[in-house]
Every structure is written in C-alpha cells, then in structure tokens.
Specification:
The complex is a heterodimer.
Chain A lengths: L1 H31 L6 H7 L2 H28 L3 H72 L12 H7 L2 H4 L1 H6 L1 H64 L4 H11 L4 H20 L11 E7 L1 H6 L4 H6 L1 H15 L3 H12 L5 E8 L5 E9 L4 E9 L36 H9 L8 H4 L4 H6 L17 H31 L2 E7 L10 E7 L3 E3 L4 H11 L14 H18 L33 E3 L4 E3 L2
Antiparallel strand pairs in A: 1-2, 2-3, 3-4, 5-6, 6-7, 8-9
Helix pairs in contact in A: 2-4, 3-4, 10-18, 13-14, 19-20
Chain B lengths: L1 E2 L9 H11 L2 E7 L5 E6 L3 E6 H5 L12 E4 L7 E4 L3 E5 L4 E5 L12 E3 L12 E7 L4 E6 L3 E6 L5 E6 L5 E7 L4 E6 L3 E6 L4 E7 L15 E6 L3 E6 L4 E4 L4 E5 L6 E7 L2 E6 L4 E6 L4 E6 L1
Antiparallel strand pairs in B: 1-2, 2-3, 3-4, 4-5, 6-7, 7-8, 8-9, 10-11, 11-12, 12-13, 14-15, 15-16, 16-17, 18-19, 19-20, 20-21, 22-23, 23-24, 24-25
The chains are: A alpha+beta, B mainly beta.
Chain lengths: ~625, ~300
C-alpha cells in the first residue's frame, strides 16, 4: 500500500519536484548571472570529483533510508512509523532529486566533453587534411623535379663526333671555339649544329648516288633487253635457214640434234643408227633422177630420254664385263630392301631384262605409202638388241578375221631369214644369266621387250659366234653394214607381201553356215541356214540363189546320205555346200560397167547360168557327165 | 511368187521332209478357174495345188479352208507358168505344157488331158517354159522360155505353128498387145521385142539396158516382167521399172523402186507391181506417183 501510494505519489512528487526544481534553478540562476539559467555553465563551475562523492553519499543515504523504512515497516505499528516513514520518504525524495540533478549534470558534462572532443577532433582532422594536401603537393613537386632532372634532350641520343674531331673538322663559324670552349651549353649547341651540317651534306650525297644508281640500272635494263631480243632473232634466223637447208639437202639442224642424242646411245644402237642413216642417205642419192623433193624411204630417229641415259653413268661396256659382279651387287641390294624371296627374284629379273632408255626408230616406207615402223631396243645386261614392229597403211585396213594375225606386231617379222623366229636370245652367255634369276626362256618376255632376231643383232654389229660364249662382244660396224641392204630389202618385201595377202583375205568370199542337228540324226537331216559374206551380206532373205543352195542341202538330202546307214550325211552336206559356193561364185554375172577380169574364173561346166523366172544358178551336179545344170 | 509359211518341225521323217520342202518352196505361178471359185498354184517342186477360193474367202473360213483341196504332182520340174482357158488349166515348166480339165481337177488321181512339148533344138538340156500367153482371138497359146524362142501352138490341133527367134538369151515374160495384135517378150538379154502375130516377124526391139535413165548395171540387164496397155508398156527387172511409150520407144517415167521387179500389171489406170523380195505390192498411177503400197 505504501508502495502503491509511493508510486502514485511519485509522479506527483516528480511533477511537483520538477516545478520546485526549476524554481530552484531559476533562483540559482538569478543569483548567479541574472539573465538566464544555464546548467551548462553550472557544470563548468562544479567539480566532478565532488559531484561523484555527492553521488556516492546520496546513494548511501538512500540505501540507509530505505533500510530504515524497511525496518519500520517490518516492525509493524502503523501510526508512529507512518510519520517516520513519511519523513524518510521525503528525505529519500530529496535524495532522488539530487540524484537526478547529478545525473543531469553528468549528462551535461558528458555532452560537453563530447562536444569538446568533437571540436578538437575536427580541428585535428582539418590539420590532418592540410598535412596530407601538403604532403601530396610535396610529393608531386618532387616527382616533377625528378622528371625534370631526368629529362634527356634528344640531342643526347645523337652520337656526336668526339670533341677533338669536332674542333678539327667543323668550320670555324660553327665551332666558334672561343665561345664554346668555355660554355658547355654553347659547345653542345655548336656540336649539334655541326652534326646537322654533316647530315645535310651526307643526305645530299645519298640522293646523288641514288639517282646515279637509277641511271645505271636503266642502262642495264636496256642492254639486257637488247641481248634478250637477240636470242629469238637468232632462232628465227635458224628457222629461216631450215628451208634453205632443206633446199640444199643439208639438214644440218636436224642432223646435229640427232647426233647430239646419238652420243648417248649404247654401242650397238649407235652402230645401227650410223649404218641406217648412211644407208638412208645412200638410197636417197641413188634416186637422183627423181624430182628434188627427197623421197625418204628410210628415216631414222632416236627416241627416249637422254637424261636417263646420262644417268646411267656406267658406260655400257663396263656392265658387259662385270656381269657376275653386278649380279652379286644386285642380290645384296635387293636383299637389303625387300624381304620376300619371290619379289626379290622378280626384281632381279627386271633388272636383268632392263632396256636402255634410248631406242632407235626406223621408218621404212614402201611404194604404196604403207610404213613399217621398227623400234630397236638394247637390253643392257643381256647385251642383245630387240625390235618391235608396227605396220601402218595409207588407208584403214578392215581386218577380216582370218587375216588378223598377218600384220600383228608379234609375227610380221618372223622368219625374215630362214629359221629366225625371234623367240630365243641369240647371245649364248645369256643362258647362264637366266639361270641365276630363274628365267627359262626369253620367249615369255618378247611381247614386252621386242623380238631378238638374229638380223637385228647383225644390224647392230653384234656378232655371237656359236662355239664359245663370250663375255665381251665387240660391236662391229662392218658386220652391220654388210647386212643392212639385204635386211632392208627383205623387210620391205615382207611388208608388201603381207599387205597383199591381207587384201586378198579381205576380198575372199566367206560362206557361213548355221546348222541345226536333230537328235534323230541321220534319219532326220541337219538343217542348214547360209549367209554369204561377199560383196555384201547375202542370205535367203535377199538372194534367191542362197535359198536354192539351202534347198539343195536341206531338201535334197536324200541324195547325200551316202551308203547305208547314211551316217555321212552331214559331211556330204558340207561338201556339197563347198561345191555350191564354188558354183555360185564362178557363175556370178560380170558387171559390165566395171573393168577388169572376173574375180572367180569359171572352171565348172555349166550349160546355162540362169534359168527360170527366179534366175537360179545351176546347182545340180550331173554325175558322171560332170556338168552343172538346174533342177 | 509367195513364200510358204513356216511350221514347227514334227517328228516323223515324212513330216520332216515335207516341212523342209515347205521351207524351201517357191510358188511360181497361179491361175484362177473360169468359174472363179478355185485357185490353182504351181510350185518349184512341180506340184499344183487347188485351193477353194469361195471357202477360204467366206465368212466362216477355218484353217482347213485355207489348205488346198487337192495337191498333185504335175510336172518333174518347177511349174513356172499357168494360164486358164474357159475349160482348161494349162501348166508349163520343165519344157512341157500340160492341160488339165478344170471340171476333173478336183478328183483324185487326175491326169493331164494332154501334154505337148515344143520343138527344141538342143537335146542336152530341156529348156524351161517361163511364160504362157493365150491369144484368144486366134486360139493360140504362145510359149516362151529357155530356148530363147517364142513358140505358138494352136489350141485346137495342138500343133506348133511357128517359132519366133530373136532373143539371144532366155525369155522371162510375155505380154499381149491386143490392138495390133502383137506379142511383147522380155528376156534375159535385156531386150523387149515386139512380134507381129500375123506376119510372125519381129517388129520392134527395145534394149532397155541401153537407156541411161533406167539401166542399173549392177543388177544386170534382164527383163523380168512386162505389162502393156497397147500404147504403153511397163517393164522392169534388172533395170529400173519404167513406163515406155511404145510408138516412140522412149522411156517416159522411171518408177523409183530399188529392188528388181518381178511382176507388173496394168489395172485400169494404175500400175501394180511387186518385187519378189519385199512384202509390198506397190500401186502407181502411170504418171509415176506411188499412190500407196499394199503390204503383207
């Protein structure tokens, strides 16, 4: 209750305390200053220590009073104590007020203190800022100073001539010795001047030199052009001289080139070349009665790569001598490179059969404008020459089937001389070589390498005596020369005769017969259908006579059965067909508009050639009278 | 000429033989009966076959109707020529001319009424008769063929009256020029000769192969076919088929045919021609314009 009342009363008291407090204050103010009351000012006057003591004392008093109140309240009697309690309460209130004042003062002091601190701090901050600014400026200035101190004038980069030189070389108006000696600045200036002067002079010189150079270069250009224009002119002169050369029959140019290449030929080919050219020229001269245009019967040329020939730096004679050595070498090298045995052997063979890169090409022209092209090769390791032949005709040849082989390169030159088939190597030494690499005979390789005819060897001056095989063989010009003429003549006749034979084959009449055989042969006869290839294709569709021939063997087969049991029917039919073909061809009416003799002269006896509306030929043979008549 | 159709080869020997025969058969001649119902055809084996035209051409025709009603061996050699009179069928080929009665011909085992052989000069080989020509006004039959002569036979008596000589090679064809009356004959020698029947002499010769417009030397010079229209004549063979004006003996039109022509007839204003080796019968108006072709 008392606490409640104290609580109730405290606010009252406070209010009421406040008023008097203020009153107190105003009193003290007016006592002191007179105009206004400033608690702040009071703070300055009072001593904080004493206030602290006061505070401690007040707290003690309050504690004491509270304890006494407590005592009194616990003792119990209400009335007497109530007054004492009230008394003490009032005292404690006063103490409270003191405490509040002290609190205010403390606050004010604190505030003041803070303010002061704040001010001071601000000042300090301001000074600090200033300090920093100044320091910064100092630093900046220091940097500038160092920069300025570090500044290097460009002039210091220039390598100036040394002082002594300077004073020696510079003209006096630049060097100004009297001024510059004492004054380094002036000296440097002077030196720089001198440098500039020198440089100007040098630049002048440089320009002059450049222009000189340009001039000289132009002159060089002009001269070069002149020289280079000479070369085509020389060439054109050469070209222009060619017709003159031809006219005068002195093809120097061509011949020169040929002889150049000929130098790289292996000896047998060289012999052949020389002899063939000589023969060709001789033949041409022989026909001096001919009009001036030279009829080149025989023309010689060299084909192949001269560079490759040059690359074979071993001249062919050496390879002939050391064949066994080179074989051994080959073995070794091939062993190193390739492991397999079969491929090794192949390589050895290829090496053995290697051709010289150059070959001699001979063109033999015959009267009817057909040309026999012969290409002669030299097999270096075997020391034999081979030839490949080709025939070209002025007009296209239509090759009938049976004549296909006549002009084939493989066989056109076969047996030019008796027994010379061109399938075996003429050099006996080759056999030993072949054994080493497993070649049985050269026959397998002739298609590729050419044919090693004996006459070819002779033309190249290679002579192989049959009794002893020799390693070294001399190439003999006289041997070649002695055989040249005969061989050439033989070759020409061979070509011409083959061509003539070819033509004959083309003009032959061919009868094709298709036969159907019945399983019931020979009671049921074979049936023939015929087609005649001669002056066009004639069958039973377009030629009544073919039809009649078919009818002779198909319908009239009973005559052809032969003796019982008649198994020869087919052969007899075929034979009759042959006879019928003969009759047909021989009785072909002669075309009056075409001149010349009949192609198939009539050998058979015929009474009449044509009979009946269908104009059939006489196919019926009358035995034993032996003449042909119609059915 | 016609080619016989091919058939599959049967098994028996006889059938094989017949099939082979058919394969190589050539029909050389044909003739229609006077009543018009039958067609006789003669082939290279000497057989004559009679076909019933009415049956084959009727609307109910079957395969059998197209087979011959009767076939018989008429001659030893090919039957090159046949003509029909109002009662007889005359066939000739291997040097003889035989006559058959149309009325009897369909009966089996028909025999010829008569056969005659013109007087030939050579005996070594019997010349064939290539052409028969009836001259109804004079009742003559003219035969021509291998012996290079035209023989005239009187049909009543069967005697050979005269022979006309002039051709140097055998005669292929005959034609009758009614107005004059003349006979034209064309032969292997390349000439068309006109003979006057009354005087039995050669009146005109036209050597066709000598005229450049129509001659074709690569085919030969033989004249294979002849037809005449009294003023005009068409002939062909080795040389090109040409229309001739007879009085002036000049070729007027050359028909553009490549193959040698084997048959030609005048029909009204048209020229019908057939080559043996093609499937066509070409029809021309006689101005040389090929109107159309009949083709198999």
């Amino acid at each position: 209750m008392s606490s409640e009342s104290s609580k109730k009363r405290k606010p009252k008291v406070i209010r009421s305390d406040g008023a008097p407090a203020e009153g107190k204050r105003t009193r003290s103010d007016t006592e002191q200053e007179g105009k206004y009351y400033s608690e702040e000012a009071e703070v300055d006057l009072r001593d904080p220590g004493r206030d602290y003591e006061l505070y401690k004392y007040t707290c003690q008093e309050l504690q004491r009073l509270m304890a006494e109140i407590q005592d009194l309240k616990s003792r119990g009697g209400k009335d007497a104590q109530a007054v004492e309690i009230e008394d003490r309460r009032i005292q404690s209130c006063v103490h409270f007020m003191t405490l509040k004042k002290l609190n205010r003062l403390a606050h004010i002091r604190l505030k003041k203190g803070r303010d002061q601190t704040h001010e001071a701090k601000q000042k300090v901050d301001a000074y600090h800022l200033q300090l920093q600014n100044l320091l910064y400026e100092v630093m900046h200035l220091q940097k500038e100073i160092t920069k300025c101190l570090e500044f290097k004038s460009k002039h210091e980069e220039i390598d100036l001539v040394s002082l002594e030189e300077f004073y020696k070389e510079a003209p006096p108006d630049i060097s100004k010795a009297e001024v510059t000696m004492g004054d380094p600045h002036q000296q440097t200036l002077a030196r720089l001047d001198w440098e500039l002067e020198q440089r100007k002079r040098l630049a002048e010189k440089y320009r002059e030199c450049l222009s000189n150079k340009e001039k000289i270069l132009k002159e060089i250009e002009v001269k070069k052009e002149y020289l280079s224009s000479l070369q085509p002119r020389l060439n054109s002169i050469m070209q222009a001289s060619l017709p003159v050369q031809e006219y005068l029959f002195m093809p120097f140019d061509q011949a020169h080139k040929q002889y150049e290449t000929a130098r790289h030929l292996p000896p047998p080919l060289y012999v052949l070349f020389v002899q063939a050219t000589a023969y060709g020229q001789a033949c041409a001269h022989r026909k001096s009665s001919q009009p001036p245009r030279q009829d080149k019967m025989l023309s010689v040329a060299i084909e192949g790569s001269v560079d490759e020939a040059k690359a074979l730096f071993k001249p062919p004679e050496d390879s002939q001598d050391d064949e066994s050595d080179s074989d051994a070498e080959e073995e070794q090298t091939t062993k190193r490179r390739r492991p397999t045995l079969g491929v090794q052997l192949d390589d050895k063979r290829k090496e053995m059969l290697k051709r010289h890169p150059l070959s001699v090409l001979l063109d033999l022209k015959c009267k009817d404008d057909s040309v026999l092209h012969l290409t002669f090769y030299y097999l270096m390791n075997l020391n034999i020459m081979t030839v490949k032949a080709r025939v070209t005709t002025a007009t296209e040849l239509i090759t009938p089937i049976s004549a296909g082989d006549l002009l084939s390169p493989d066989s056109v030159l076969s047996c030019l001389y008796p027994g010379d088939h061109g399938k075996k190597t003429p050099n006996p030494a080759n056999q030993y070589q072949f054994d080493k690499v497993g070649i049985l005979t050269l026959r397998d390789y002739v298609l590729d390498l050419g044919h090693p005819y004996l006459w070819v060897q002779k033309l190249g001056g290679l002579h192989f005596p049959k009794e002893q095989p020799q390693h070294t063989v001399i190439t003999d010009h006289s041997l070649s020369a002695s055989h040249m003429e005969t061989t050439m003549k033989l070759l020409k006749t061979r070509v011409q005769s083959r061509l003539a034979l070819h033509k004959q084959f083309a003009s032959l009449a061919k009868l094709q017969a298709a036969v159907v055989l019945n399983p019931g042969y020979s009671s049921i006869p074979p049936i023939f259908q015929l087609c005649l290839n001669w002056k066009g294709e004639k069958t039973n569709n377009n030629d009544d006579n073919i039809r009649a021939m078919e009818s002779e063997v198909n319908v009239c087969y009973k005559e052809l059965c032969g003796p019982r049991p008649g198994h020869q029917l087919l052969t007899n039919q075929l034979q009759r067909l042959c006879v019928l073909l003969d009759v047909y061809l021989e009785t072909e009416s002669h075309d009056d508009s075409v001149e010349g003799p009949k192609e198939f002269p009539q050998e058979k006896m015929c009474l009449r050639l044509f009979r009946g509306p269908s104009r059939i030929k006489p196919f019926k043979y009358n035995h034993p009278q032996g003449f042909f008549s119609h059915r | 000429m016609e080619r016989a159709a091919q058939q599959a080869v049967p098994l028996g020997q006889m059938e094989v033989f017949q099939a082979l025969q058919r394969l190589h058969m050539t029909i050389f001649s044909q003739s229609v009966s006077p009543c018009g119902k039958f067609l006789a055809a003669g082939n290279n084996y000497g057989q004559i076959a009679i076909f019933s035209l009415s049956a084959a051409l009727s609307s109910e025709a079957k395969e059998e109707s197209k087979k011959p009603m009767v076939t018989f061996q008429a001659h030893d050699g090919p039957v090159y020529s046949m003509v029909s009179t109002d009662r007889h069928l005359l066939s000739a080929g291997d040097g003889e001319v035989k006559a058959w009665l149309w009325a009897e011909i369909l009966k089996k085992g028909c025999k010829e009424l008569w056969r005659r052989q013109p007087p030939y000069r050579t005996s070594l080989e019997v010349p064939e008769i290539n052409a028969l020509l009836l001259v109804p006004k004079e009742n003559l039959l003219i035969l021509a063929g291998g012996d290079c002569q035209l023989h005239a036979m009187d049909l009543e008596t069967g005697t050979f009256m005269w022979a006309l000589r002039g051709h140097t090679d055998y005669i292929h064809c005959l034609a009758l020029r009614e107005r004059s009356p003349e006979v034209l004959s064309g032969g292997e020698d390349g000439a068309v000769r006109l003979w006057d029947l009354r005087t039995a002499k050669e009146v005109q010769t036209i050597e066709v192969y000598k005229h450049e417009e129509c001659s074709r030397p690569h085919n030969g010079r033989w004249i294979g076919c002849l037809a005449t229209d009294s003023d005009w004549m068409v002939c062909g063979g080795g040389p090109a088929l040409t229309l001739w004006h007879l009085r002036s003996s000049t070729p007027t039109t050359v028909f553009p045919m490549r193959a040698p022509q084997k048959h030609v007839t005048f029909y009204q204003d048209l020229v019908l021609t057939a080559a043996g080796n093609s499937c066509r019968v070409d029809v021309f108006t006689n101005l040389g314009y090929r109107a159309f072709s009949l083709s198999f």
